[in-house]
Amino acid sequence: MDQNVFVFDHPLIRHKVSLLRDKNTGTKEFRELVSEIAMLMAYEVTRDLPMKEVEIETPVAPTKTEVLAGKQIAIVPILRAGLGMVDGMVKLIPNVRVGHIGLYRDPVTVEPVEYYCKLPEDITEREVILLDPMLATGGSASAAIGFLKKRGIQNIKFMCLIAAPEGIRRITTDHPDVKIFCAAKDEKLNDHSYIVPGLGDAGDRLFGTN
Hints:
The protein is α/β, with parallel strands linked by helices. The protein has helices at residues 11-21, 27-45, 86-92, 139-150, 165-174, 202-207, and strands at residues 5-7, 51-57, 62-68, 73-79, 97-98, 100-105, 112-118, 127-131, 134-135, 156-163, 179-185, 188-189, 195-196.
């Protein structure tokens, strides 16, 4: 597998993904699971954040220790399903900046079109984690990465819950500089571009729509 693709094998994540896949898991539990998995994944995704040494005083003695250095990260969910991953990330990193990007597929050209984008003013100085639960064909994710790069953002990671080989291949081809983090890599896409075995439509299951 490409060195820029990280598939989680932690038992807690694997367990929660299994619950997430179950068609009998209701909307409330599904939302909670998505948030919990995103929070667990965030530990590894943020592993390489820069640190700096500071001096503090404990109740016992002065000491030197480390804290995060400078501007940190921003998370950008792809609307709408990416919103389900935001709360888990914010719980772990309360000061994180949050942007949003919305895409739709043009019915004529079948190409992704950006319809909404709101980003923090200093986002080019931050590491950006793009969020979307499902990486299927990779078309929308690749387009979103491209739209971010056009705004001068170069330090981008992509984080999803379930990925298909086709989607991974699309991003690694279009954006070889972007690291992909996924909780599970599935078998394939079916004729309707749904991930198999997948978990169905993440947006519908998150928000209780059909």
